[in-house]
Amino acid sequence: QTYAPKLILLDISDISCIRDVAKEILNCYGCVDILINNASMKVKGAVQSISLELDKKIMDANYFGPITLTKAILPNMISRRTGQIVLINSIQGKIGIPFRAAYAASKHAAVGFFDCLRAEMEEFDISVSTVNPTFICSYHRQPAPGNWEASIWK
């Protein structure tokens, strides 16, 4: 069956709204056949210059966001014993480079989670894939002095 597309806005770093969005999607379509986690935030800077607040925001967007959405959709896939989950991650989830500590840490964490999930979902015939591309060109805003949020790559 073919469904008309529906636009649902989601800030993947706002963990508190993800379950409601997943519920809205499931109520609208009844199921999710393929979940592609493809949102990301990154920041460039020395470890000592990046605040813990920004580290947490990066971790929310790149780790907790995708796993929260995946966990919200997963019971439906398990009950149907079918589905595909894809994480579009980064090569920095395998190899860290200087001035990207928060980003690399969040991507390493995501790789670990989805590797474990892959093994656990095999018995339910749910496919879990992780794609780790090399560097890509992303949207970037030049930061105003003292405005760390503007230094985030989305």
Automatic annotation (TrEMBL):
Keywords: NAD, NADP, Oxidoreductase, Signal. GO terms for biological process: intracellular calcium ion homeostasis. InterPro entries: NAD(P)-bd_dom_sf, Sc_DH/Rdtase_CS, SDR_fam, SDR_family_member_7C. It comes from the Eukaryota. One of its GO terms (molecular function) is oxidoreductase activity, acting on the CH-OH group of donors, NAD or NADP as acceptor. The keyword Chloroplast does not apply. Belongs to the short-chain dehydrogenases/reductases (SDR) family. This is Dehydrogenase/reductase SDR family member 7C. The lineage of its organism: Eukaryota, Metazoa, Chordata, Craniata, Vertebrata.
